[in-house]
Design goal:
It is built from twelve helices and nine strands. It has two domains: 231 residues, Spore Coat Polysaccharide Biosynthesis Protein SpsA, Chain A (Alpha-Beta Complex), CATH 3.90.550; 99 residues. The model has no long low-confidence stretch (mean pLDDT 87). β2, α2 and β3 form a beta-alpha-beta unit. The protein has a seven-stranded mixed sheet with strand order 3-2-1-4-7-5-8, with helices on both faces. A two-stranded parallel ribbon has the order 6-9. The longest helix is centred in the C-terminal third of the chain and has 25 residues. The protein is α/β, with parallel strands linked by helices.
Length: 343
């Protein structure tokens, strides 16, 4: 637990070649967070454009009330590595993650923090560029589309309802930080962070924030390659970074649902059904362990014994949903028991 003389807030800011924005960012931080119980942890991620010298000059001014920590990484290691380094060198009860490029408004960060302080039940709050009510400037369709698709996939994989997984403005309580172990060094840190928060059963609140997209000419770092990599990270955190029991249930459900799909359609249609059902099975394996998953399979089998042709298909679908209902009931019943790893 934080000591009485510790900081209430640590603002972690990863910086890589942001010389055009650092002065304005610093002025905004002084405007909204200039208090003795706040610390600013800036991690210079191997900047080569003069950002390092400018940050040192700002630190020497010493005309601010907050504690200013400046950490220099010798080589550019990625946003994720910079954030991990900043968190490890922070001491605040709350951690605020703030990008240095001013795409996100520091005023929104202050509003989010005020909200968290007033409501101690909020342990995690994410900014969202897609919630209404704030000013937004974004004419890059592809980036916007990928962000929304990733959020949709994340929600399906983790049974969440987040609108913007990738937003760089976040506030986390120290109790959350102590539960997670971040390992991704690049822009995939956002997916890694969100997935670990959900796995540890913390609820993520969202707050609509302003967004001012900047172009590559203005210093935008993320590219279409990072967009593709984000899909890899979604698969990784959901289907590989699991307990042994979950990985077994994913494999089990994938196989039996692929088997079910192989009995639908003809020719190429059968192959398509097999693939689709296998994907559904993998998702089921995430949420249901072996025994509860077997209940679903049993219901599907019973459904296949009724009707003919399209009637059988309808029967299988109906029994599938009935199996889901009973599996959820069993999962809930055994959740606090010694058999939870099987349900």
């Amino acid at each position: 637990m934080p000591q009485e003389n510790s900081k209430i807030l640590s603002i972690v800011i990863p910086v890589f070649n942001e010389i055009n924005f650092i002065n304005k960012l610093f002025d905004q931080i002084v405007t909204y967070f200039n208090k003795k119980n706040v610390e600013i942890v800036v991690v210079d991620d191997g900047s080569t454009d003069g950002s390092s010298n400018l940050l040192n000059e700002l630190k020497k001014k010493n005309d601010y009330k907050f504690l200013f920590k400046l950490i220099k990484l010798d080589t550019n290691s990625g946003k994720g590595k910079a954030i991990q380094t900043g968190i490890k060198n922070s001491q605040g009860e709350y951690i605020l993650l703030q990008d240095a490029d001013l795409e996100l408004d520091t005023r929104d960060a202050k509003e989010m923090f005020d909200m968290v302080i007033k409501n101690k039940d909020i342990k995690c709050i994410f900014g969202s560029r897609y919630l209404s009510g704030k000013l937004k400037k974004n004419n890059y369709f592809f980036n916007n589309l990928v962000g929304k698709i990733n959020s949709l996939i994340f929600n399906i994989f983790f049974s969440q309802s987040l609108s913007d997984v990738h937003c760089g403005l976040k506030i986390l309580h120290r109790s959350v930080i102590e539960k997670i172990k971040l390992s991704v060094n690049d822009f995939g840190i956002e997916i890694d962070l969100a997935s670990q928060i959900v796995r540890n059963n913390f609820f993520i609140y969202e707050f609509g924030v302003s967004y001012f997209f900047r172009s590559k000419a203005q210093g935008k770092k993320i590219t279409w390659v990072d967009g593709l990599k984000s899909f890899y990270y979604l698969i990784k955190v959901r289907f590989f970074d699991n307990s042994s029991s979950t990985n077994i249930s994913i494999l089990y459900s994938t196989i039996y649902m692929a088997y079910v799909g192989s009995h639908f359609g003809m020719g190429l249609g059968t192959t398509l059904f097999t693939i689709i059902f296998a994907i559904i099975g993998a998702i089921l394996g995430i949420h249901f362990k072996v025994l509860s998953s077997s209940i679903i399979f049993l219901f599907i089998y019973i459904g296949s014994l009724f009707g003919q042709g399209n009637g059988t298909t309808l029967s299988v679908i109906l029994f599938f949903f009935a199996g889901l209902f009973f599996a959820k009931k069993l999962k809930k019943y055994f959740f606090e028991s010694n058999f939870k790893n099987y349900f």
